[in-house]
Inverse folding.
């Protein structure tokens, strides 16, 4: 007998999508912060409990969601960010798939509270492992407040892959920093188990933010990168070789303001430090690549951490040169007689 074909119920569709978008607390946090950024927030607060395993909370003062659209925000492929296909080629917002909220809500005890400025009251909607409850009116400041409790409690197979609270906390903090560092115009606060971990003020420049997360002597070894080649612009910071360390978590890469993880960029950095660095050592680098949108595809992976460049060699060489130029300029200007 031929089995008949059926469309999966929406809860199952959402759980499957969650498998791609949501891997751990840090990936939930990334999606929620991106939504706050897309909503034009000027202040974003994050609260983690047990590294996000118990709860992840993001509070913003962005545009909010209208009462009548709260359920829609929790519906798969519903988004306010693109309306027709050609938009995909010129995406300027972080989100665009309309998958994050429904996915996260299908694998957690989820609360969404929101109030646009013009609405006198806010509304709260709870979702228990994909089951949407009726919304209720609440008083709240304008903006959006999302709480994700008990991530993956309904999916033992996924729960198994989560690490200990300290490890998940470390990853969540790294995600927070990746998002917060470049948005110097926005205030960011991070609390973990009610303790304040970081508070970045609005209009606080990146160097000042870095002194809050890295030791002073590391920050003082950073040199400014400023590089322009045709239509590629590279800015950021790179450490002088004397501060090179055996830890790789002090490299932050951005392409058109999106945080990325990219092997090509990493290998270009390694190349630039060749001869100054051992195999297991890393420099501290913050790199902002600004390239025409048509040279990069952000649609490769649902978590959007990976990008694909259409002219890999050009990008590789530009990054290598940008850093090499910076390092050469500093050795020219800072003469160390004892080191010759
Ligand atoms: P996407 O970001 O891809 O559009 P999401 O599932 O993350 O999809 O969010 C769905 C929709 O909910 C968004 O398009 C937006 O309209 C609304 N939304 C989500 N988070 C916020 C927020 N913090 N502030 C305002 N609107 C939000
Ligand atoms: Mg989103």
């Amino acid at each position: 007998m031929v089995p008949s074909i059926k469309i999966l119920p929406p809860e199952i569709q959402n759980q499957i999508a969650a498998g791609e978008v949501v891997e751990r607390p840090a990936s939930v946090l990334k999606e929620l912060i991106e939504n706050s950024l897309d909503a034009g927030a000027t202040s974003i607060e994050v609260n983690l409990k047990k590294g996000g395993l118990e709860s992840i909370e993001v509070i913003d003062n962005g545009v909010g969601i209208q009462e009548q659209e709260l359920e829609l925000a929790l519906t798969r492929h519903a988004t306010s960010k693109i309306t027709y296909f050609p938009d995909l080629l010129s995406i300027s917002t972080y989100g665009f798939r309309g998958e994050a909220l429904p996915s996260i809500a299908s694998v957690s005890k989820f609360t969404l509270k929101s109030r646009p400025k013009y609405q006198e009251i806010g509304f709260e909607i709870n979702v228990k492992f994909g089951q949407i409850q009726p919304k209720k009116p609440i008083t709240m400041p304008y903006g959006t407040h999302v709480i994700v409790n008990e991530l993956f409690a309904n999916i033992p197979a996924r729960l198994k892959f989560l690490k200990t609270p300290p490890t998940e906390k470390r990853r969540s903090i790294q995600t927070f920093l990746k998002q917060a560092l470049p948005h110097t115009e926005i205030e960011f606060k991070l609390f973990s188990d009610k303790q304040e971990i970081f508070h970045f003020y609005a209009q606080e420049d990146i160097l000042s933010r870095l002194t809050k997360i890295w030791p002073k002597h590391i920050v003082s070894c950073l040199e400014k990168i400023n590089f322009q080649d045709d239509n590629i612009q590279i800015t950021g910071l790179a450490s002088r070789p004397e501060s090179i360390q055996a830890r790789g978590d002090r490299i932050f890469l951005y392409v058109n303001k999106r945080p990325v993880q990219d092997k090509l960029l990493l290998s270009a950095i390694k190349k630039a430090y060749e001869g100054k660095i051992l195999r297991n050592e890393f420099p501290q680098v913050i790199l902002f690549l600004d390239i025409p949108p048509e040279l990069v595809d952000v649609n490769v992976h649902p978590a959007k951490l990976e990008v694909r460049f259409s002219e890999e060699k050009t990008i590789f060489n530009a990054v290598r040169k940008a850093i090499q130029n910076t390092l050469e300029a500093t050795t020219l200007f800072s003469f160390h007689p004892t080191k010759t």
In short: The chain has ten helices and 16 strands.
